[in-house]
Amino acid sequence: MLPRVWFALVIVLLAALALLAQRGIGVETNLLSLLPSFQKEPLLQKTVERFAEQVNPRLIFLVGHKNPEQARTAAKKMAVALRNSGHFASLEAEIQQNTLETWQQFYFPHRYRMLSPEIRQLLKQPDAVAATLHRLQEKLHSPLSAFFSRMLPQDPLLFFSSFLQTLPKPPGQVFLEGGMLTVQDHGKTYLLINGVLQHNPFNIGRQAAVQEALAEIIEQATLSTSDLEVLHSGVFRFAAKAAEEAQREVLTIGTGSMLGILFLIIVTFRGIRQVLVVVLPLAIGLLTAVTVSSLFFVKLHLFTLVFGASLIGVSVDYAFHYLAKHRLSAGQWNSWEGLWSIFPALTMGVVTSILGYAGFWLTPFPALQQIALFSAVGLLGAYGTVVCWFPLLMKAPPSVASPPVALVAVKWFLQLWDAIQEHRATPVVLIMLGIGCLATFNSIQFNDDIRALEQRSPTLQSEAHRIRELTGGLEVSRFIVVRGKSVEEVLQRQEQATRRLQSLARNDPQFDFQSLAPLLPSQKTLAENQTLLRDALLAQPERLKQGLSNMGFAPEVVELFVRELLNSEPHGFSVKDWLASPISKPFRHLWLGKIEQKQVSLILLGSRHDAQQITVALAGIPGVAYLNQVERISSLFRQYREALTKLVALSYLLVLGLLIWKYRLRKAVKIIGSPVLATLLTFALFSITGQPVNLLHIVSSFLILGIGVDYTIFFTAGHHAASATGLAVLLSAITTLLSFGLLFLSQTPALEAVGLTVALGIGFALLLSPLALTKR
Amino acid sequence: MFEAKLKSTKVEFAKVRVDCKQKFVRMLLLCGLLLFAFIPTSPVAQSVFEHPVQEDAFPPTLQALGAGWQNQRTLRTQFTQTKKISILRHPLVTEGKLLFSPEHGVHWQTIAPFSAEVVITPEGYFQRKNGKMVSQIPASVGSGAQQYLKAMLLVFSGDFQNLKTLFAFSFLHSNQVWTVGLSPKNQLAKIIENIEISGEFPADLKLIVIKETNGDLTRIELHGIDHSTAPLSPTELRFFK
Question: In three state form, how does the secondary structure of A712-763 look?
C-alpha cells in the first residue's frame, strides 16, 4: 500500500514538473532580491526599485588610445558591432550633432519664461535696462562674439543663449568633442559608449550569450587596432560573473559531493544496488523540492539551488541509516523490521531538521523562505522514499558478511567516547567549555556592510574603479529623493534643493550633481520669470527701444521684439511633453513619476560629496531626503542579524521542547548538547581568529542545529545499534562536509560564509555526537 | 616708408603739373595706390583659399613660419576689432590690448567703447570682474565654442601640428607678406566658414579675419606689437588668476 501511494505521488510530481517546465522555471541571481522589502517605507523602496530598473541594464564602454583619431575610429567601429549584436536596446557613441539644435527648438517657444540665474539677477538690478544693454555690448564685443551674434535675430537680448548655457553638461571630466563624449588621461584619449541592454542583466538565460558577444567584439577591436584599451563596466558584468561563478560552483559542489558519496557507498556497502538505491531518495528529494518551490515562487533564487545542491548531503543521511542497518544485520535481515527499528529516529530526524529550517521561514527574507521550503520539502521527499520504498528494494540480506573497514574507526571512536563519558568530570568540562565559548562572544567582530557580500572579482572591481576614476560618473547608491503630492510640488521642491546644492557647488569645484531643475522649471518659477522680465524691461519700453537702435538694430526689429515680449502667451510645457521629447533622453532616469500616490524625482550626486553636508544643506525642505542605499541595506542587515541571532536561540529551545516531550529532560539535553556545543565552538573560533561575522554566518547555525540533532537522535536509539548508527553518522557527516564544506571554497562571499560555518559546525557536531549515547 | 615718400613726391609733382579735372582722376588713382601701400597683408588680389596645402606636405616656408611663430612665445599687442553683423546697421568697433602667453592663454582687454577683460585659457572662457575670474563657458560645454576657443589659442601659439587636426590649411605668400587660410574640418564648420591670418615675414601677426557661415565678418587688426620675449610680469601673471 505505502509503496504504491508514494509511487503515485512521485508520478504526480513528475507531471507537475513537466507542466512547470513548459511555463519555464525562472532563476533569480540578484543578490539584493535576497533582501526583504522595506515595509516601513514602501515609497522609498519602490523609488529605489524603479531607479534600479533604469540603472541596472546600463553598460559603459571606454575605448582608449594614444592617438585620438585611432581611438575615435575604433570606438565608432565598436559601437556599430555592439549595435549589430542585437543585445542592446539602445547604444549611443556619437551624440547627435543636432542635439543642441533640438534643445533650442524645444525651449525656444518658452524663451521669455525660461531665465538663467544670471539673467534673473540682471533683471533684479535697479536699472535693469542699462544692465541688459551693457551685457549685450560686452558679449558682442568679446572674442566669442561669433557665437553670440548668430543668435541675435531670434534672441536680440541674448537671454535665451544664457539659458542654453546653463543646461547640464556631461558629468565629471567628460567633455564633448567631435560629437563624442571624451576623456583624456595620461596622454591617452578615451571615448565613451553608453549602452542599455535589451534584457534584464540578471536574466541567466541571456547572460552567457551577451558575455560571449561582448568578449568577441572587444577582442576584434583590440586585434584590429594595436595598443587599444577597452574598459567596460555595469551591473551586468558583476551579475553575469556572479551567476557564472555560482553555476560553476553548483556543478563542482554537486559533482564533488556526488562522487564522494558514490565512493563512500561502494567502499562501505559493497554493492551496485546500494548505489542505485541511494541515488533514488536524492533524485526524488530534488524533484519534490524543485516542483513544490516553483509552485510557490515565481523564480527560484540561485542561492536556493546552491543550497539545494548541498541538500544532497543531508537527504542521503536517511538512506545511510537504513543501509548501515542492512549492512550490519549479520544474517538476520527482514527489510520491514529493519525499517521499523530506525523509524522513530528517522522521523524525529526529519522533524527536527525541518524545525531548524523553520527558522529560515520566520525571517522576512524571501530567499531564505524559499530555501526553507525547498529544503524541508526536499527532505520530506527523501524521507518518504526511504520509508516507502527501501524495504521493497533491500529485501535480500547483505551479500558481504565481513564488516566494512570504516567500522573499525567508528568502533574505536565510540570506545573513546565511552571512556570520556565514564569520567565524572566530563559534564563539568563540557559545560565549562560552553561557558568559555560564550565568554568570547563579546569580542566577535560583526560586519554588516552589504559591499562585503558583493562579487569581488579583482579584475571587474579594478576596471569599474578605473572607469569611475576616468569619468567621475555619478553615484547610483547615494542620491537625493524629491517627493510631492503633485508634479508642481515636486518641481518646486526640486528647485529649492537645487539652489542649495548650487551654493555648495560654488564653494567646492569637486562637487558635482545632476538635477532636473534647470530643465524642468515649476509653473511658479515660469510665471515669476515672465513677470520679472516684463516689469524690468517694459516699464520703460522706450529706453529699451532707444538703446537697441543705438546699437544698430533696425527699428522694425526692435518693434517686433518688444511686441513679442509684451504679448507672449503664458503657455508652458508639461513634464509629459518634456519626457516625450528626445532632449530628455539623457535625464529621463531622474524623473520617476508616480509612485504610491506621490510624484517622485531624483537628484544624483558625484562620488565626492559629504553626506553630512548634504543632509544639513537640505534640512527644512519638505519631501526632500538624502538616501544612502548602501547604508540602508547594511543597517537592515544588522537588524536582521540581531533578530536572527535571537531566532537561533528560539529554534534551539523549540527543538529542546520537542525532545523533552519525546525523550524526557536528561536525554533531551544530551541530544541537543552536541549541536549546541558545536555552534558555540564555531562562533568562539570566529571570535578568536577575528573572522568577521555577518547575517549568513548566523543563518548557517540553523543548519548546525538541523543536521547536528539528526546525528545525536540516532545514538539515543541504544548501545546495541551504536555501531550501525556510528557508521551512518560518520558517512552522513562526511557527505555533509563534502557538500557544504565545499562551499567554503566559493568565490561568492555569501556562499563562502555558509560553507565555513557549516563545515566547522558539522565537524564539531560529528566529534561530539556520541555524547548522546546512552550508557551501557 | 620709402614707398610712402615716393608717393608724396608724386603728389607734389601732380599739384604743379596737372590741371583740376585731371587732378581728380589722379587723386582717385592715388587713393588706390595708398590703400594698396597701407595694407601690406593682402599680398596678391587672389584668395588664399585657392591655394590649399597638403596636410602631410607643408612647404618649407610655411614650416619655417610656424617655427618662427612658436619661437616668439609671448605676444603683447594692441588690437582693433571690427565686427560686421548682418542684423546691425553699422559695424561694432572694439579697441583694446591683447596679451598671449603659451603657458597661460589669452588676456583680451577691451578699452573702447567700454572697459572689460576676458581671459581664455585651456580651462575655459572667463570674464574678469573686480579682479576675479568668472567662468562663462566651461571648456567642457558641448558646443562649437570650446573648439573655437581651442583654435584661438592654437592660432596665437602657432601650433600648426594641432591646428591641422581642426583645420585644412591654405598658404599664400610674397617676399614680405604671408597669409595662412584655415578651413574648419569638423563641428566648427557649422559656424566658421574660414579664418584668414596674415602678417609679415619672419612671423609677425598682423590681421585675423574670421568669416562666419551666416555672412558675419570679424576683422582683428593687431598693431604696436611688442617683440620682447620677456616672461610675464607679476602684473601680467595676475591677469590669469
Answer: HHHHCCCHHHHHHHHHHHHHHHHHHHHHHHHHCCCCCHHHHHHHHHHHHHHH
Q: Looking at CA atoms only, how far is residue B136 from chain A in angstroms? A: 9
Specify whether the CB–CB gap between A397 and A330 falls below 8 A: no
Listed by number, the residues of chain A in 438-497 with a beta carbon closer than 8 Å to a beta carbon of chain B are: none
Phi and psi (nearest 5°) for A494? -60, -40
Sequence-ordered alpha helix ranges (H) in B128-222: 144-157, 160-166
User: Sign of the CA dihedral A402, A405, A410, A412?
Assistant: positive
Q: Cβ contacts (< 8 Å) between A165 and chain B: which residues? A: 136-137, 141
Q: Per the CB < 8 Å rule, is B148 touching A142? A: no
ipTM above 0.85, yes or no: no
One-letter amino acid of B31: C
CA dihedral B51, B56, B60, B61 (to 10 degrees): 40
Cβ contact A232:A65 at 8 Å: no
CA pair distance A227, A222, nearest whole angstrom: 7
Q: Is the pLDDT at B232 greater than 50, yes or no?
A: yes
- Three-state secondary-structure class, residue B47: coil
Q: pLDDT for B90-111, tens place per residue? A: 899 999 999 988 888 899 999 9
Report the C-alpha gap between B236 and B241 in whole angstroms. Answer: 10
Name the E strands within A674-715: none
Answer whether A147 sits within 8 Å of B144, measured CB to CB. Answer: yes
Mutation target among B56, B77, B85 for the A interface, most CBs of A within 10 A: B85
Chain A contact for B217, CB < 8 A? Answer: no
Angstrom distance (rounded) from CA A391 to CA A78:
65
Answer whether B85 sits within 8 Å of A152, measured CB to CB.
yes
C-alpha to C-alpha distance for A185 and A366, rounded to whole angstroms: 45
Nearest to A178 among B118, B125, B187 (CB): B187
Q: Report residue A573 as a C-alpha cell.
A: 510645457
Contact B81 A141 (CB under 8 A): yes
Q: Do B118 and A68 touch (CB under 8 A)?
A: no
Q: C-alpha distances in angstroms, A133 versus A138, A440, A500, A680?
A: 9, 78, 30, 82
pTM > 0.80: no
Buried b / exposed e over A178-199, threshold 16 CB at 10 Å, is bbbbbbeeeebbbbbbbbbbeb
Give which of B55, B79, B84, B92 to mutate to test A binding, by max A Cβ within 10 Å. B92
The grid coordinates of residue A132 equal 541688459
Number of H helices, E strands in chain A: 28, 13
- The string of pLDDT tens digits covering residues A236-250 is 888 888 888 877 877
Distance CA A412, CA A403 (A): 14
DSSP string for residues in A517-544? TTTS--HHHHHHHHHHHHHHHHSSHHHH
**Coil, helix or strand for A514?**
strand
